[in-house]
Recover the amino acids of this structure.
């Protein structure tokens, strides 16, 4: 019986560590009218590995959002799920995967109120 | 580079897909995404033709490979209506919009000068959040009459599933539409109008190589088409002059007492009687509002009611709308509702307390004046939510509320609230706003097992009570072929006939079908 509180504490501590590894972050433009693929944001999974990019670096793999072309981004989400959190916890943060989702601003389409005629739009 | 290189991009598969609200998922063969011409020409017939060509290339690809082809805008629907095993066509970047000129209108156009002034041609990929500021700006000075509570849908997507609001004298979002540019095949496209409501001179559809077809039944079929007729590339909407709304959110009467579902409130809900009990009105307001939405919490005793009532105001020329989402208005986080949903499955006793907490977080008591587009703005998080609808004739409103409250007592408490909305009848054949007016209960809340079981039970209970009902096509529903036949009757048959007329080749119909339509006996 004396061991139960200790086990519970350990379980609670483990759960807290794992849940603590889960995270979501969001940055959006004031008018977030962007697009991704078929309604969903573009997705990229990155792994930050301590030392990969130099002794003092925790650099990520990096990704160029070519989908956005010359437009900016309207939404960036960073997620770390339970599994990714577990990897981060077990490696004491030296390996830290995350999923990044983003949307690109849509192209501005020029308007000309005098365009068109009675035979074409 | 040619348009074929720059305007159509294929994302190969098989690739997983999830709707915006993360309640529906599946595997696609591929996604074809269409981009506006890169040299950014003014939106008009030449640009439309270039976009149409790419849409038809995508359709041709699906045809050649024997795949389904389905268009998606934002993936906003909470049902599996947009899901396909084939090619999903993304048109979200097609956002052209322009006013129509009076010299472009058919002489038989039956609208008055004000209606003609509100005619706009818009591409199907426009989000409602993009249309609102464009319509309401100082150049156009127009407004939509109604939308859904949020602004994330595309105009084509909302048309396909029946997005609605609660403007007392107006129908659904799709009821703004008076002409449809529909692409049905590699080489086929139609410009659809009602025979009873011609809009454009014949030369205009000819300029985009579309066959003009004026037929009330065909138009009213495609108007609520469930994506089953092909690709809706452009539509003509009839907007109104811009206006302001003064919105009141309140949970107490003038007497300071909480609003509950008592006799006075039941009278207001069932009869739209805004005169007999001034205690239920906002301070210094009387008469019929433009928008009315009571939200009933079934998990308090007696059920408490939160009211949103909006009154029309004339546009102030000095007013400058601000549509931007504001810091601090984000609401619960990504996983909050889904994690809470699982917890509430295990600890149902805390559902009432949870409902109060959520209501306090999401329902901000107070008043705010703004344009339509400001009042129904952005939702920041992509949160997993439960949402279903029951729509009935207004005469059966109280029967339906009582049935749902009893069902909650029997099965619950379930972490859902009952939002009461009012929608005028639509001429669209499969519109769920079939009665005039239609009373719509939007049942929203936490997505968990108890909520889903509640949604499952509703249709059987409604049938047992003998209450005629429809359900929102874009939300969780319990439609079956028999239930559709029961409530839509001959209109369902006309819808199927219109589909056969526009898509005479069975292979075409199969291409624009999906499991959702086949399960419901519509394809």
């Amino acid at each position: 019986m004396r061991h139960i509180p200790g086990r519970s504490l350990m379980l609670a501590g483990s759960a807290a560590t794992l849940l603590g590894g889960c995270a979501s972050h969001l940055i959006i433009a004031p008018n977030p009218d962007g697009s991704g693929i078929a309604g969903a944001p573009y997705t990229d999974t990155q792994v930050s590995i301590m030392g990969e990019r130099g002794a003092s670096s925790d650099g990520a793999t990096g990704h160029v959002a070519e989908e956005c072309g010359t437009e900016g981004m309207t939404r960036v989400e960073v997620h770390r799920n339970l599994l990714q959190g577990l990897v981060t916890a077990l490696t004491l943060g030296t390996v830290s995967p995350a999923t990044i989702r983003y949307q690109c601003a849509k192209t501005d389409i020029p308007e000309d109120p005098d365009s068109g005629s009675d035979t074409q739009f | 580079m040619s348009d074929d290189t720059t305007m159509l991009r294929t994302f190969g598969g098989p690739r997983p897909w999830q709707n915006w609200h993360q309640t529906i998922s599946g595997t696609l063969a591929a996604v074809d995404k269409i981009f506006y011409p890169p040299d950014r020409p003014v939106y008009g017939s030449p640009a439309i033709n270039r976009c149409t060509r790419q849409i038809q290339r995508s359709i041709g690809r699906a045809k050649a490979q024997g795949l389904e082809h389905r268009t998606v805008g934002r993936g906003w629907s909470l049902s599996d209506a947009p899901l396909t095993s084939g090619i999903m066509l993304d048109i979200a970047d097609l956002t052209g919009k322009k006013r129509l000129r009076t010299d472009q209108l058919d002489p038989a156009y039956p609208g008055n000068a004000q209606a003609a002034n509100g005619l706009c041609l818009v591409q199907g990929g426009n989000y409602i959040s993009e249309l609102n500021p464009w319509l309401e700006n100082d150049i156009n000075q127009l407004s939509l009459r109604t939308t859904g509570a949020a602004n994330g849908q595309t105009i084509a997507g909302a048309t396909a599933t029946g997005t609605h609001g609660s403007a007392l004298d107006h129908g659904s979002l799709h009821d703004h539409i008076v002409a449809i540019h529909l692409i049905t095949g590699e080489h086929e496209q139609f410009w659809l109008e009602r025979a009873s409501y011609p809009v454009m001179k014949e030369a205009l559809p000819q300029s985009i190589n579309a066959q003009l077809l004026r037929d009330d039944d065909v138009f009213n079929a495609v108007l609520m088409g469930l994506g089953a007729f092909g690709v809706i590339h452009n539509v003509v909407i009839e907007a109104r002059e811009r206006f302001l709304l003064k919105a009141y959110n309140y949970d107490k009467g003038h007497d300071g007492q909480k609003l509950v579902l008592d006799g006075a409130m039941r009278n207001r809900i069932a009869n739209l009687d805004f005169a007999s009990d001034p205690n239920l009105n906002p301070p210094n307001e009387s008469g019929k509002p433009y928008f009315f939405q009571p939200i009933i919490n079934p998990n308090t005793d007696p059920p408490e009611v939160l009211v949103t009532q909006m009154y029309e105001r004339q546009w102030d020329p000095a007013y400058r709308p601000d549509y931007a989402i504001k810091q601090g208005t984000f609401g619960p986080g990504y996983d909050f509702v889904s994690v809470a949903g699982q917890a509430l499955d295990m600890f149902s006793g805390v559902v009432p307390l949870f409902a109060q907490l959520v209501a306090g977080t999401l329902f901000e008591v107070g008043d705010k004046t703004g344009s339509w587009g400001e009042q129904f703005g952005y939702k920041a998080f992509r949160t997993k939510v439960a949402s279903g609808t029951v729509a009935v004739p207004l005469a059966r409103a109280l029967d339906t509320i009582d049935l749902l409250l009893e069902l909650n007592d029997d099965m619950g408490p379930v972490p859902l609230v009952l939002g009461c909305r009012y929608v005028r009848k639509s001429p669209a054949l499969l519109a769920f706003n079939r009665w005039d007016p239609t009373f719509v209960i939007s049942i929203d809340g936490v997505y968990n097992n108890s909520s889903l079981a509640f949604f499952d039970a509703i249709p059987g209970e409604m049938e047992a009570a003998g209450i005629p009902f429809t359900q929102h096509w874009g939300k969780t529903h319990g439609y079956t072929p028999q239930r559709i036949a029961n409530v839509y009757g001959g209109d369902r048959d006309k819808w199927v006939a219109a589909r056969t007329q526009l898509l005479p080749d069975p292979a075409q119909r199969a291409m624009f079908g999906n499991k959702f339509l086949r399960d419901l006996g519509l394809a």
User: Anything to note?
Assistant: Residues 244-313+326-376+383-478 of chain B form a domain with the Alpha-Beta Plaits fold (CATH 3.30.70.2520). Chain B has two domains: 3-242+497-519, 244-313+326-376+383-478.
